[in-house]
Amino acid sequence: MAVYTHLGAEELAQLIAHYDVGDLVSAKGIAEGVSNSNWLIETTGSGAADSPTRFILTMYERRIELSDLPYFLGLLDHLSAGGCPVPRTIHDETGAAFRMLDGKAIALIEFLPGVSPTQPTAAQARAVGGALAQMHLASSNFELTRANTMGFADNLAVLEKCGEAGLASIDPALPEILDPAKAAAALDLSALPVSNIHADLFPDNVLMLGDEVSGMIDFYFACRGTMALDLATTHAAWCFDPSGAHYNAELGDALVAGYEAVRPLEVAERELLPEIAKGACLRFVASRAEDWLDTPDDALVTRKDPLQFVSRWHFYDEAGLGIFA
Q1: Burial grade of 8 (CB within 10 A; 0-12, 13-18, 19 or more)
Q2: Mean pLDDT in runs of 10 for the chain (325 residues)?
Q3: Please, what is the end-to-end C-alpha distance for the chain in angstroms?
Q4: N or C: which end of the chain has fewer CB within 10 A?
């Protein structure tokens, strides 16, 4: 259950009273997520005909630096104002995007309808590619910035911290990924176009109504970064079966086509995409290996297997440029 802090009905009602959204009707804890406490909030609305009455209340518990919140929440507002399917931040009576409660930051976010696909279709993948490109174009002039803390060199550092013995305790073959991680860390992306990127657009971070993207959520890895990296990360997240062993070419082709229908790739981006995709896979190998080793054996948590992204890495390594041609 992703509610780490208990808030009683009176405390929630007092909190919601600081926003022009009406009175609290109900609050339900949301099980999804691993880093923050989340509630689905329903209110009476402000009285306006188009007043929303459902929101997501988030208390930031871990893995979020308070100094990054103006960037994360400001980017939501910027993208929403630019017509992207992104939830806006609800500002309080003072105009603030977040409030503090017992030393923790809390934000009220617009609720968007839709469901996350578990078996995406080609039409959905195409729509996601288009929405991602739209987001890149709309966020290019966002005034705030945040560095990518999950870059290729960072991934290598995490894997080296895990150590060969630690990696081998997960799987005897896993230490072999260290050499590819060193090669990825040396990859120079500085000449490629940048914008603000989502950096974690897995299917569970996309809401869909049929074949239309109704919401892109959870921007807490967002940063100023290479747009091709965001496309490659999304490609790796959407276009394989859960094991990572089987690539779905129909989804992959649709995702890239949808992206290029809105923002055509530059030649240099396309030529580097296979190497960028390999680096994107190593990010999840590193983060999953670190979490695996840090999770106690008796913890009630299902570990995510880093080998699922090792399989993806091998696919991109063998497929080369043909996969993005």
Answers
A1: exposed
A2: 68 94 90 74 82 89 86 98 97 96 93 96 98 98 95 97 97 97 96 98 97 96 97 98 93 98 97 96 96 76 88 94 81
A3: 43
A4: C
Q: How many helices (H) and strands (E) does the chain have?
A: 9, 10
How far are the Cα atoms of 76, 162, 179, 226 from residue 182, in angstroms, in the given order? 34, 14, 5, 19
Quote the CA–CA distance of 304 and 31 in Å, as a whole number.
Answer: 17
Cα 208 vs. chain centroid, distance in angstroms? 15
- Left, alpha or beta for 53 (phi > 0: left; psi -120 to 50: alpha)? alpha
Instruction: Report DSSP state, residue 91.
Output: P
Q: Sign (positive/negative) of CA torsion 132, 138, 140, 142?
A: negative
**Spatial distance between the Cα atoms of 218 and 2, rounded to a whole number of angstroms:** 14
Query: H or E element: which one contains 208?
Result: strand 206-209
Q: What sections of the chain are H helices per DSSP?
A: 9-16, 69-81, 122-138, 152-170, 178-185, 227-238, 249-262, 267-294, 307-319
Q: Which two tokens stand for residue 65?
A: 């630096």
Helix or strand holding residue 225 (H, E) = strand 223-226
Q: What per-residue confidence (pLDDT) applies to 1?
A: 39
Task: Tell me the two tokens of residue 274.
Answer: 């296979």
Say if CB 97 and CB 69 are below 8 A apart: yes
pTM: 0.93
